[in-house]
Amino acid sequence: MTTQLEEDFSFKQRKNTRTMLIKGIEEALNNQILLESESSQTYLAMACWAETNGFDGTSGFMYAHSDEERGHMLKIVKYINERGSRAIIPELPQPKDDYKTLLEVFENLLEHEVAVTNSINELVFKTLEAKDYTTHNFLQWYVSEQTEEEALARSILDKLKMIGNDKGGMYLFDRDVESIQVTSAASLQAK
């Protein structure tokens, strides 16, 4: 029969022997934290531009998108820390905050999402090379999420290109884009 003191010591001992991430994987995940943080800041800057240029629907969409990206970053932070390693919160560069058109905003959004997808794919490849199947499994959520992010950005861009310079169409687009739900693959899986 074990005493409470022995159980507490045993728990602390197990806690201190947690599996740590392989150094290269830890570094790559910390780099992904930077990219997800930049995404959040980029979309926040886009929201500010849209709001100050009368695109209230787009600004609402971008504010929600910024929050979602911050959630993606936090998920990686918690994963790194739970694996016995340490997440590094990076200093962020000033995001672009001036655009000529709404089309340019969404073109930049798609370009940014493609860069995030490429980074996630590279990270998945590194986990397979390192035989880190736990992290590989964790990253599958991001693989699905990026597929959705890119599809959404492309769909929005297609609509904007159809509208062209039609002011009435632009008004309706801005009104409707706010109603697009920014949902993640995880929230869809939870249902």
Compact overview of the structure:
The chain is an all-alpha fold and 191 residues long. It has a single domain, classed as Ferritin, core subunit, four-helix bundle (Ferritin), CATH 1.20.1260.10. It is 76% helix and 0% strand.
What order do the helices and strands come in, and which of them pair?
Blueprint: H1 4-16, H2 23-52, H3 56-82, H4 102-129, H5 133-163, H6 167-177, H7 185-190
Helix pairs in contact: 2-3, 2-4, 3-6, 4-5, 5-6
Strand content bin: under 5%
The total tally of domains equals 1
CATH-scheme architecture: Up-down Bundle
Name the shape in a single word: elongated
Using the coordinates above, name the CATH class.
Mainly Alpha
Q: Please estimate the helix content.
A: over 70%
Structural class: mainly alpha
Mean pLDDT: 89
Q: Profile the largest sheet.
A: none
CATH T-level fold name: Ferritin
Order of helices and strands: HHHHHHH
* Relevant CATH superfamily: Ferritin, core subunit, four-helix bundle
Instruction: Round the Cα radius of gyration to an integer and report it.
Output: 20 Å
Total strand segments: 0
State the helix count.
7
Contiguous uncertain segments of 5+ residues: 9-14, 184-191
Distance between the termini: 44 Å
